Amino acid sequence: MNFHPEFSIPLAEQNQVGVLLVNLGSPEAPTPEAVRPFLRDFLSDPRVVELSPWLWQPLLRGIILPLRSRQSAELYKKIWLKEGSPLKVFTHRQLEGLRQRLPENIHCAYAMSYGKPSIHEAMSTLKSKGVGRLIVLPLYPQYAGSSMGAALDKVLGELEHERNQMSVRTVARFYFHTGYIRALAQQIASYRKQYGAGEKLMFSFHSIPQKHSDLGDPYAQECRETARLVALELGLHEQDYVVSFQSRFGGGKWLEPSTQTLFKELPRKHKITKLDVICPGFVSDCLETMEEIAIRGREQFYAAGGTQFQYIPCLNDNPAWLDALSEIVKESGAGWIKA
Predict the structure, then answer these.
(1) Three-class SS of residue 337?
(2) pLDDT at position 249, please?
(3) CB burial class (10 A; 0-12, 13-18, 19+) of residue 40?
(4) Beta-bridge partner residues of 242
(5) 3-state SS string over 151-206?
(6) Which residues, in sequence order, are CB contacts of 33 under 8 Å at separation 6+?
(7) What percent of the chain is predicted at pLDDT more than 70?
(8) Are 60 and 42 in contact (CB under 8 A)?
(9) Cβ neighbours for 187, distance < 8 A, ≥ 6 positions apart
(10) Which of 16, 75, 114, 121 is most buried, by CB atoms within 10 Å?
């Protein structure tokens, strides 16, 4: 018989407000043994890989996982922090910053779509504290079915199994939010003021298959709108920046232009040898930003003739971003959260 923690809480105390931040996830350690189950769960999500399981699972388990687990573990070792996974470290700091900016009676937690702490664990903990009204904020500024959609699927899936369901409000996107845009612009301006500005600013977003976009996923349009709004805030002209897409996986057509292709073409074809890069689709630095862009991307750009490559870190625990995060939560919790 399952134990339901809310049974031990007086009925009058079962309507407290909680906030759940959700990020993608990370292995527990930079080892093949830890990376494998993380990748298995991630790449088994039908929101992420839209192929028949009968075709995909034998390929995933027989070929991709044995090979990719070892490769990814070596990449994780390059960016692993003393405190652990960068993604988890920065997500935890964001949670603490959010707690400081919300009333003390608001319960806050974070979870990962894949790995630990799981969404099930976080929601159970919040419910055990009397949370009956939950604000769910996946940390993806732009909506994509494979990221935001997958996170919300898991949250709503947990509700399906609850006899006593919480009231839930979800944030599906915040790509245009004034606080988020201003925090990004401040991050870029501060970095360029300290280190100098390159000849062009690149906004590199995680890519998705072109097929997803063709079927109605708004991700590409939202990414480009974020870049436009940040450029407007910075006073940049269209020729001063470029939008690109990184982190392709597998074959097929993906969103263009490719970040990696531009790293090679900008110096060779367009004589852009000084480049600044920021990844606005990630609010926390992680493998895709710290290794793929800051390390490997730098090498690709220099190999193509570039002379200056500056990676501008994600928002992480930038106070301006934490202020924006609290604004998004308060706006989403209107009527629930009182100052």
Answers:
(1) coil
(2) 85
(3) middle
(4) 202
(5) HHHHHHHHHHCCCCCCEEEECCCCCCCHHHHHHHHHHHHHHHHHHCCCCEEEEEEE
(6) none
(7) 96
(8) no
(9) 278, 312, 313, 315, 318, 320, 321
(10) 114
Q: Which amino acid is at 319?
A: P
Residue 257, token pair as written in the block: 């232009």
**Residue 174: pLDDT over 60:** yes
Name the amino acid, one letter, at 322.
Answer: L
Element (H, E) at 205: strand 200-206
How far apart CA 338 and CA 320 sit, in angstroms, is 21
Supply 332's token pair.
Answer: 């989403």
pLDDT digits (tens, 9 = 90+) for 281-291: 999 999 999 99
Per-chain mean pLDDT for the chain:
95
Which pLDDT band, with edges at 50, 70 and 90, does 45 fall under? very high
pLDDT band per the 50, 70, 90 thresholds, residue 250: confident
The whole-model pTM stands at: 0.94
Strand-pair category, 167-170 with 131-138: parallel
Contact between 333 and 17 under an 8 Å Cβ cutoff? The reply is yes
277 close to 314: Cβ distance less than 8 angstroms = no
Q: Which two tokens stand for residue 100?
A: 């400081």
Could you tell me whether strands 274-278 and 308-311 are parallel, antiparallel, or unpaired per DSSP bridges? parallel
Strands (E), 208-329: 241-246, 274-278, 308-311
Tell me what percent of the residues of the chain surpass a pLDDT of 90. 92
Reported as a single tens digit per residue, the pLDDT across 9-19 is 776 677 899 99
What tokens appear for 27 in the block? 């292995």
CA 146: distance to chain centroid? 11
CA dist., res. 241 & res. 220, Å (int): 16
- Rounded Cα distance, 319 and 61, in Å: 42
Instruction: Reduce the DSSP state of residue 259 to 3 states and report it.
Output: helix
Instruction: Check if the beta carbon of residue 283 is closer than 8 Å to that of residue 314.
Output: yes
Cα dist from 197 to 157, 183, 191, whole Å: 46, 18, 8
